[in-house]
């Protein structure tokens, strides 16, 4: 066995271990820390640091390993990228210095900073862009860092770049996921719970109109309102605990729409013609059912609240692989708003749901000509298990 091999093997092993540890980490802070730690053990340096570029020639983060945690606060603020570190950060070239204290670019150490002599600096590039650098100081047992040390750290820096990039991406997707969740909550609360409360409002309006002459009828309407409110509270509770109204889980789309129509008839005292395909449940997924239901709910609620119609019609039919939802009223109609006005989310939510469904949503309306909504979903097929 040659002497070279004996020397190289543990280092390659260390490099491979280091890259694995880095690759398995997703939090940026941990990734940076692990990279610095790996670099330090890889080539036997007393101290290691990882500086991340802020994109404007300064350091945005500076993670150190090897410095006593008690000593940290005494050293003061992290380096800002002046002096030797900064110089090197701008140039983006590796650097070996035997004694930092004697280097012409050195800005000097702050008080309480451990004294350091030998230095190896290696830039980290990601997609051709300088994103940071690894600094190793005080080579153990030797007076300065070698070319081999530099090569090993350069290899590590390649992995570090990927890991940092991944961690950045991961953080970004996490943020996006949270935003999407929030949007979904807002949509579900608006379309489900708020619309139901509006329905209760309509019933109470009816009750008020019946008073004082028809007190008994008014009492009935108030009773209905109380029941509806209890159902809303129940839905809300289910939503909070389980993020999905129970009714949608246990009942299929057909029963839910039938229930909605019944509720609306009671709330508005309007004739409502409904034609819901009784087999529809076997053709839609839970996700599709939920969006279709909410679109229907919003359209019906808009018709009842805004159109002052004499009648409302709703139909959900399937022919071959095409599913069509239609909601129409013979009321006032309206000029579709160009932009979403504050406090009016219904139409925008419908569009959003239609696009999630990959469906086509058309709203035909004109002043005093009523409103006719058509949602078309193609590529529907019978599902394996039916509920
Ligand atoms: N069927 C309809 N008949 C008459 N006007 C309608 C009808 N649907 C919608 N509109 C008009 O379009 C506006 C926007 O509707 P949208 O559903 O986006 O908001 P909203 O119903 O006012 O409030 P939200 O749905 O957020 O509770 C309504 O305020 C209403 O003026
Ligand atoms: Mg609305």
Percent range of helical residues:
40-55%
The SSE string, one letter per element, is HHEEHHEEEHHHHEHEEHEE
Small molecules bound in the structure, each named once: adenosine-5'-triphosphate, magnesium ion
Biggest sheet, in brief? 5 strands, antiparallel
Annotation, overall tally of beta strands:
10
Structural class: alpha+beta
Spatial strand sequence of the major β-sheet: 2-1-5-4-3
Averaged pLDDT? 86
Number of domains: 2
SS summary, helix count: 10
CATH superfamily of the largest domain: GAF domain
pLDDT under 50 segments (min length 5)?
none
The dominant shape is: elongated
- What's the level 1 CATH class of the largest domain? Alpha Beta
CATH fold label of the largest domain: Beta-Lactamase
Q: Over all CA atoms, what is the radius of gyration?
A: 34 Å
Query: How much of the residues is beta strand, in percent?
Result: 15-25%
**From the 3D coordinates, which CATH architecture of the largest domain would you assign?**
2-Layer Sandwich
Terminal residue distance = 70 Å
């Amino acid at each position: 066995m040659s002497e070279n091999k004996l020397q190289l093997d543990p280092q390659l092993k260390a490099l491979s271990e280091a890259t694995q540890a880095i690759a398995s980490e997703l939090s940026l802070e941990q990734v940076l820390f692990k990279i610095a730690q790996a670099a330090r053990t890889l080539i036997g340096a007393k101290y290691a640091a990882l500086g991340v570029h802020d994109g404007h020639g300064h350091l945005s983060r500076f993670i150190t390993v090897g410095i006593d945690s008690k000593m940290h606060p005494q050293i003061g603020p992290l380096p800002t990228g002046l002096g030797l570190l900064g110089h090197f950060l701008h140039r983006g070239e590796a650097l070996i210095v035997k004694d930092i204290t004697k280097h012409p670019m050195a800005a000097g150490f702050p008080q309480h900073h451990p004294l350091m002599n030998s230095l190896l600096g290696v830039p980290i590039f990601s997609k051709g862009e300088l994103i940071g650098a690894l600094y190793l100081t005080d080579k153990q047992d030797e007076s300065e860092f070698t070319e081999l040390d530099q090569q090993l750290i350069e290899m590590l820096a390649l992995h570090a770049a990927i890991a940092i990039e991944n961690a950045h991406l991961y953080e970004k997707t996490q943020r996006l996921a949270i935003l999407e969740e929030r949007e979904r909550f807002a949509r579900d609360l608006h379309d489900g719970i708020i619309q139901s409360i509006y329905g209760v409002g309509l019933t109470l309006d009816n009750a008020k109109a019946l008073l004082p002459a028809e007190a008994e009828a008014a009492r009935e309407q108030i009773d209905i309102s109380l029941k509806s409110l209890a159902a809303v509270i129940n839905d809300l509770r289910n939503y909070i605990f389980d993020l999905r109204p129970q009714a949608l889980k246990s009942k299929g789309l057909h029963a839910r729409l039938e229930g909605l129509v019944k509720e609306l008839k009671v709330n508005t005292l309007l004739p409502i013609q409904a034609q819901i395909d009784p087999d529809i449940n076997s053709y839609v997924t839970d996700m599709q059912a939920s969006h279709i239901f909410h679109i229907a709910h919003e359209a019906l609620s808009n018709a009842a609240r805004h159109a002052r119609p004499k009648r409302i019609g709703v139909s959900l039919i399937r022919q071959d692989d095409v599913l069509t939802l239609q909601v129409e009223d013979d009321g006032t109609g309206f000029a579709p708003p160009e932009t979403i006005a504050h406090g009016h989310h219904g139409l925008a939510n419908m569009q959003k749901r239609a696009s999630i469904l990959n469906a086509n949503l058309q709203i035909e309306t004109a002043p005093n000509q009523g409103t006719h909504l058509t949602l078309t979903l193609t590529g529907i097929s019978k599902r394996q298990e039916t509920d």
